[in-house]
Amino acid sequence: MTGAVLQIEGLKLDYAVPGGRLHALRHVSLSIKKGEVLGIAGESGCGKSTLAAAMIGLTGANARQSAGTIRLGGQDMASLSEDDRRRLRGRKIAMVFQDPMTAFNPVLTIGGQLTDFQHNIEGLGRAEKRARAQAMLSRVGLSDPALIMGRYPHELSGGMRQRAAIAAALLLQPEVLIADEPTTALDVTMEAQIIHLFRELRDDYDGAMVIVTHHLGVIAELCDRVAIMYAGEVVEEGPVDAIYHGARHPYTRALMACDPAMIEGRTARLPTIGGALPDLRSPPPGCAFAPRCPLATDRCRAEAPPDVQLTAGHRALCHEVRP
């Protein structure tokens, strides 16, 4: 995709674990343009959060990128030193983590931390940085931001902490904002408020956004495109409307069928996808979804599926789909 601010090509990433290496990401290719919102969805353990961490270079000491590239603004992240990657975080790419309870240092005030987060900005005094931090707290919908500046993280509710975390991520106006499960730890009321905040941000935020979630409703509310992940691979990608109303991959269809919003009438049992994720210490030679797929053939179990281009911008990783 031309004009991409973040481009991932053929990414393979694994972790050292007891018994070998766990192949957490396999042949992942994605890109996102300025002003676009990309959703990444899938069940727990599919690699969503690992992909988000890889985008910002926070995968841990036991991780190894064995193939592929992650380019931010044309720069290959793997070719940069850790100091150079650290300088990019915040200014070029920032992340809102899924747990607002642990996003901040518990012994420092919110205002002090938001001020310190701006240490790379040259030419601004501490008073100006505090003023910018307070203005950003107001922008994300926190009432009485001056009071919030002097509060410690434990003195804020979960929803308030999440808003403060979003403010922290936006302080340096990054080109790419990643939100990893931004509503998971919140109650339903707070979840609706955070979704509304992101909806407002997408209208006036000039950068690209990546929303990582298992909540299909959040994707529908916020995103332009969605990538569906399974067992470390992107199995289907396309515009939100195309995926939600014309999913082609059997896993995507099964995932959509499990969404409570898709269930009509009363039922005593919620739908599930039978079986379990494969052991990624030893990935299967064919399609990873084959043991759970009603369409699987011997070919699916033996050969890696092709990446089929269905329409412009819509693709699926499957032997059984046709353009």
Describe this structure in words.
The chain is α/β, with parallel strands linked by helices and 323 residues long. The chain is built from eleven helices and twelve strands. The protein has helices spanning 48-56, 82-88, 110-116, 126-139, 145-149, 158-170, 188-204, 216-222, 240-246, 250-257, 298-302, and strands at residues 4-17, 20-33, 37-41, 63-72, 75-76, 93-96, 176-180, 208-212, 225-230, 233-239, 307-311, 314-317. The strands form two sheets. The protein has an eight-stranded mixed sheet, sandwiched between helices. Strands 2-1-4-5 form a four-stranded antiparallel sheet, covered by helices on one side. Helix 7 (188-204) links the parallel strand 7 (176-180) and strand 8. Helix 3 (110-116) crosses helix 4 (126-139) and helix 6 runs parallel beside helix 7 (188-204). The radius of gyration is 21 Å and the shape is globular. The model has no long low-confidence stretch (mean pLDDT 92).
Q: Which helices and strands occur, and which strands form pairs?
A:
Layout: E1 4-17, E2 20-33, E3 37-41, H1 48-56, E4 63-72, E5 75-76, H2 82-88, E6 93-96, H3 110-116, H4 126-139, H5 145-149, H6 158-170, E7 176-180, H7 188-204, E8 208-212, H8 216-222, E9 225-230, E10 233-239, H9 240-246, H10 250-257, H11 298-302, E11 307-311, E12 314-317
Parallel strand pairs: 3-8, 3-9, 6-7, 7-8
Antiparallel strand pairs: 1-2, 1-4, 4-5, 9-10, 10-12, 11-12
Helix pairs in contact: 3-4, 4-6, 6-7
